[in-house]
Amino acid sequence: METKNSVLNKISMIVFIGSVVGAIFVGVLVYFLLVSAGDPSAFSKAVISTIVIEIAFLVPVYMIRVLIDKYIISKLKEIERALDEVSMGNLDYEVKVEGDDELAQLADAFERMRISLKTIMEKLEKGEL
User: Fold this and answer.
1) CB atoms inside a 10 Å sphere around CB 31
2) Which is higher by pLDDT, 1 or 55?
3) Number of folded domains in the chain?
4) Which of 43, 62, 89, 104 could cross-link with 99 by S-S, CB 3.0 to 4.6 Å?
5) How far apart, in Å, are the Cα atoms of 50 and each of 24, 26, 30, 42?
6) pTM given for the model
7) Would 2 be classed as within a structural domain?
8) Which pLDDT score, from 0 to 100, does residue 101 have?
């Protein structure tokens, strides 16, 4: 479950606000250009251009957000789940992150640490250490 204060939500809000400001800026420029050219429908054309620019910008941004959630945030959530489980004493919880990126490398390093901890704990229980 994504929290309200997640990094992805903060980035999305910054991008959204920036896109609104940018679209309004372009709309104002369109309005002044059309007014200076003597177009009587300058305001309606400026509003339409602002709306079209905003939609044209937000659709790909939303698609990028979905991809970030799928390929990055989901991996981070799986690593977080594993950290929580191991910190609560469940040394049998395996972290499974697919891929060959930095997050998969982090998950592999954590998995090696989990196995080492489990081995040490088993040796302590048997009195071998």
Assistant:
1) 19
2) 55
3) 1
4) 104
5) 6, 7, 9, 12
6) 0.71
7) no
8) 92
